[in-house]
Write a structure and sequence with these properties.
alpha/beta; binds S-adenosylmethionine; Class I SAM-dependent methyltransferase; protein-lysine N-methyltransferase activity; FAM173A/B; Methyltranfer_dom; S-adenosyl-L-methionine
Length: 219
């Protein structure tokens, strides 16, 4: 994991407007973020804002650092995606599992989370048990680029701009038409979202996989 990636997520997490970042591609995404988000509980606090770092073993070679999505943003992501009990939700890079667990708790959805970090996978499965939804959700240690996502009806992301772009062809090839995709903070380049919303200074992007994939979006 590169230092500038850590910095980018921390900046996105803090919602700092117009902050210059070493990588040029993400600048547009950061520019859409508004003022600092509400941080109302320890669970919502980013690693940069605590003296106790979140689980982040050095041995894990991840594409994106662990920064949890605030609960208010989780709620809005699920609302935007119109999640219901008929859905199968996949969170790619699932952290402590909050998005999938909330989808099961609040909407009765089934779900799967994948994360490269085994400690986070264990934490997520523990949280699912505590929440009483472990019959409907599961978390597995896996590289999100290797995950079979074909069963998903909703995919959630809180990654990074370049990771979203690398993931885009997989999303478009493997997901069925009509599958909804929701991304916290970061867009997918020239794949125009159907909806963009803001909550607590965060931007949420929403796409639906089309029947016909334009050639320009395949790479
Ligand atoms: C910004 S956090 C988002 C966590 C959660 N989705 C949320 O919104 O609260 C990104 C997560 O992706 C995981 N991750 C990074 N690279 C990954 C990879 N190649 N495969 C699976 N997970 C990965 C990290 O361990 C981290 O938990």
């Amino acid at each position: 994991m590169r230092l500038n990636q850590v910095f980018m997520l921390i900046v996105a997490s803090a919602g700092i407007v117009g902050m210059g970042v070493a990588s040029c591609q993400p600048q547009r995404a950061f520019d859409t973020e508004a003022t600092a988000p509400a941080q109302t509980s320890p669970a919502q606090t980013s690693p940069a804002q605590t003296s106790q770092p979140a689980s982040q073993p050095q041995a894990v070679d991840r594409d994106v650092p662990y920064v949890p999505t605030p609960e208010s943003v989780v709620a809005e992501m699920l609302r935007v995606a119109n999640v219901s009990q008929n859905d199968v939700i996949y969170d790619l890079g699932s952290g402590d599992g909050r998005i999938v667990i909330t989808a099961a708790q609040e909407y009765g959805a089934r779900g799967m989370g994948v994360d490269i970090d085994p400690a986070l996978v264990q934490q997520a499965n523990d949280r699912a048990r505590q929440a009483g939804v472990s019959d409907r959700v599961q978390f597995v240690q896996q590289d999100l680029f290797e995950t079979d996502i074909s069963e998903a009806t909703v995919v959630t992301l809180y990654l990074l701009p370049d990771v979203n772009l690398r993931l885009r062809p997989k999303l478009l090839e493997e997901l069925r038409p009509g599958t909804r995709i929701v991304s916290h903070s970061f867009d997918m380049g020239d794949w125009e979202p159907e909806q963009v919303t803001q909550v607590d200074g965060r931007t949420i992007y929403y796409w639906v996989v089309p029947e016909e994939i334009p050639a320009s979006l395949r790479s």
